[in-house]
Amino acid sequence: MKRLSAFIKRRKWIAAFLLLILVLGIGFAAAKGGNGVTELTVERRMVVQEVTVSGKVKPVESVDLAFEKTGKVSTVTVKVGAKVQPGVRLISLDST
User: Which stretch of DSSP H or E encloses residue 6?
Assistant: First the structure.
């Protein structure tokens, strides 16, 4: 019985030693794998970066429209967000 328990204890130490060797070997291989030097080819190009952002757009200036007469809108002559110049007709009211 003594011999059996000594054999089992010895196997545990051997297994622990082999596991330690394996862990050290993997660590050494990972550390040695990259030498830290990166090689790049440099050339002149246009630098372009695309950015995607979500949120609300606020105008530089805003105008509250008020009509002298009430009624239904008959036509809208510009699209939302379009640039407009002073004097351009934006909407027309139904005259009936």
Answer: helix 2-33
Give the pLDDT confidence of 62-87 residue by residue, as tens digits: 777 776 777 888 888 988 888 888 88
pTM value?
Answer: 0.30
The token pair that represents 56 in the structure block: 């609300």
For 10-42, give the DSSP string: HHHHHHHHHHHHHHHHHHHHHHHH--S------
Residues 6+ apart with CB under 8 A from 65: 90, 91
Q: How big is the CA angle at 83 (ends 78 and 88), to the nearest 5 degrees?
A: 55
